[in-house]
């Protein structure tokens, strides 16, 4: 699935926070207080057609619902703009093959590259090569090893997923003395799983009445979700809330919950699958919310690449240039706002 | 692993290079001791589980849970035992389970209901087994390579069918199989299938010509050929059997997880081989028991269960699992050699 290095994350955390601050600052500004100055010298990208931009898009093999959604988001967004033509490579999980595909795009002299590497660290060199060849790179989600290998990184916030899940559960249980929470994590060997768990633990610290009593790691698959959840339910005869890192393994987890006949707790998912959104909307089971790892980040990457190709900034921001880092927010989707996100749900 | 078969290299015997007696005859006594030592290992595990988590471990629901979790991989392991005993290896079992489970859960297949899903799962499994068998027996490919190729292609095809999406099953009859309401006298239907496959596997191995031929082919294919056994046809049947077991396992998995996914059956090949080896099956062929393999599966599943109930994390689980595998093999070898 998705992967980013924490050291890099820390390094750019500050940049992300400041970018966020600018964003919130701008939305509250009056339009006539000088914020439009950028538009005079270097216009912000908007829906109006501008200079033709050819964007090369290289992603991994879509062997997971989320990655499918990412590819779809990128392609649909590109179709929306009459001034964008998208060159899409066939997705590959093979590092050598992906490098070859990106080299082809460089040789074709595309204007901007959007790269979601199969392995961020391993593809750093090709990112550097593209940048040296004068083709700016938008690095999507799985981050390159060196900031020189990309002009802009846009990706998700694994730590934030855990944090927001903890806050949602915390608010639901804050009046309940000695509340018990369990966690069904993803693949433990991945750094993103550690980041999600860290965020969850840090978030729960705000609620002294809540204790995490158990955690087991599944493998992002339905099968492992069913298996690990069945064991967790057997181990914990009663608890108040469950956070599951991934909606795909959540299909299995929900199956185990149904098989055990349990409904005495609330469940929060992760990532934002369509099946989870539908269950949240129906409100008939334990699943009450899910925290996003939004696939729309790929559409945003196309937006940024287009702005980059046209030499514009981002509308709504005072900056002349697009930001160097964009960390997408891991919003909590529950019954109240699920309709808004339904179209982004992946299968 | 196919043409040249060296004599069994376990600690128990320094057998003469060519043992003309059927291997199964002089090894049945040793097998009993091995089975007993495996039961001993299992008893120790139950003791550990009972001491650490008396409430949640020693519980009917937990017994049902452990047996259910063991069913899918258990059925695969029965087939794998035949393959390894015949001197082969099947690395494609996990991939075949994945392919069967996704092919049987496409929208088109689900239209045919329970029978459609069951039929497709089994036929796809047998079909893959047939390809393996033909390549190995008549194409004289090394089993390791032939089944490795099948692993890659079957996983690829499974991905192509699903596009990486999770195919949720909506046929009620299939889902009901894993629900509490359908337990027969407290036994989950999945476990009943596992038990049936085990009993049939045991009968086939120990009470039929097919079983004796399997042992003979694995022990010494040249001697088997001279004794009038059609070694190639026997090999073909054995990989067919393994494919059939994968198809059945895929159906059980569909019922259990309520879906088909191209990531299903991840690393089943290693789990099944490990369970068979722990159960006393000789990797070079010619020796093994169904009971041993099934006990091997139960040992693994019980370990996983105890880990989860004690909330051990992945790192500790993996270290402990490795240590337990080594300990189990040592205990078994020691008891077998003192016999």
TrEMBL record, chain A:
Its main location: other. One of its GO terms (molecular function) is carbohydrate binding. It comes from the Bacteria. Residues 55-312 form the Periplasmic binding protein domain. Keywords: Signal. It is found in: Cell envelope. Residues 34-50 have a biased composition (Basic and acidic residues). Residues 28-50 are annotated as: Disordered. GO terms for cellular component: cell envelope. InterPro entries: Peripla_BP_I, SBP_2_dom, TAT_signal. Pfam families: Peripla_BP_4. The keyword Signal applies. Residues 1-19 form the signal peptide. Belongs to the bacterial solute-binding protein 2 family. This is Substrate-binding domain-containing protein. It comes from Streptomyces parvulus.
UniProtKB/TrEMBL annotation, chain B:
It comes from the Bacteria. CDD domains: TM_PBP1_transp_AraH_like. This is ABC transporter. It is found in: Cell membrane. One of its GO terms (molecular function) is transmembrane transporter activity. It is a multi-pass membrane protein. The chain crosses the membrane at residues 31-51, 63-84, 142-162, 182-205, 236-258, 290-309. PANTHER family: ABC TRANSPORTER PERMEASE PROTEIN YPHD-RELATED-RELATED (PTHR32196), RIBOSE IMPORT PERMEASE PROTEIN RBSC (PTHR32196:SF72). GO terms for cellular component: plasma membrane. It holds the Pfam family BPD_transp_2. Keywords: Cell membrane, Membrane, Transmembrane, Transmembrane helix. InterPro entries: ABC_transp_permease. The keyword Transmembrane applies.
